[in-house]
Every structure is written in structure tokens, then in C-alpha cells.
Q: What sequence folds into this?
């Protein structure tokens, strides 16, 4: 427990704040919980969602990262057939787990969403 002369990190950061910011935080903290949530929603609601091009670029990066890891894991699995495992090295089972997990992730991208509400005819 801090003594009278010691300050916690929160107190130090509060004391070094601009007075207007401190006043705003104090007023925010006096609001009822529902009003605080409404203010937070209003403030975060001003951040627009990414456009389609940005969203596509993010997905391309994610997919390529998984593909690179999958290809690397497949190469390591293939090479591990020709070399005995090191005494304290990575076990082949671990590489196989990485490979199968990433394969399942990539296959899951092609599966229809279970919550899409679409019913396929059997």
C-alpha cells in the first residue's frame, strides 16, 4: 500500500494530464452506467468500417500467411522423412499438427456458414 508521499501510476498520470481532460474524465465518471455506455457508443460509432478494398487486402494477407506456414510445414514434414529427429528438436508430430490445423482453417473458408440461414437441398 503506498504511503502518503508515494503516488500510484493512475494518480501520477491523472496529475500530469491537461486540466480540461481531467475535468472531462471526472464528469464522465459521475455519469450513470447507461449514460457512460451511450457516450462510449457515440464516440466509437464515428470510426467507419473498412472499405471493401481494405477488407480484401487484410484477407489476402491472412490467407497468404497461412499458406506460407502450411507450405513450410509440408516441406519440413517431407524433409523429416530423410533426417532423424534431433535429440531436443521439434517433434514431427508438432509439425504435423501445425500442418493439419492450417489445412483445416483453409478448408473452413470454403465451407458455408452454419449461421447463414441458407438451407441446402439434400
A:
Amino acid at each position: 500500500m503506498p504511503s502518503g508521499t508515494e503516488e500510484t501510476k493512475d494518480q501520477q498520470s491523472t496529475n500530469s494530464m491537461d486540466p480540461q481532460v481531467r475535468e472531462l474524465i471526472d464528469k464522465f465518471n459521475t455519469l450513470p452506467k447507461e449514460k457512460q455506455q451511450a457516450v462510449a457508443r457515440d464516440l466509437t460509432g464515428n470510426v467507419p468500417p473498412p472499405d471493401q478494398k481494405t477488407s480484401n487486402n487484410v484477407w489476402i494477407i491472412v490467407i497468404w500467411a497461412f499458406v506460407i506456414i502450411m507450405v513450410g510445414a509440408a516441406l519440413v514434414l517431407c524433409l523429416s522423412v530423410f533426417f532423424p529427429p534431433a535429440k531436443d528438436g521439434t517433434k514431427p508430430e508438432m509439425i504435423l499438427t501445425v500442418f493439419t490445423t492450417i489445412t483445416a482453417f483453409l478448408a473452413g473458408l470454403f465451407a458455408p456458414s452454419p449461421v447463414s440461414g441458407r438451407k441446402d437441398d439434400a
Summary: The first helix runs from residue 9 to 15. The chain has five helices and no strands.
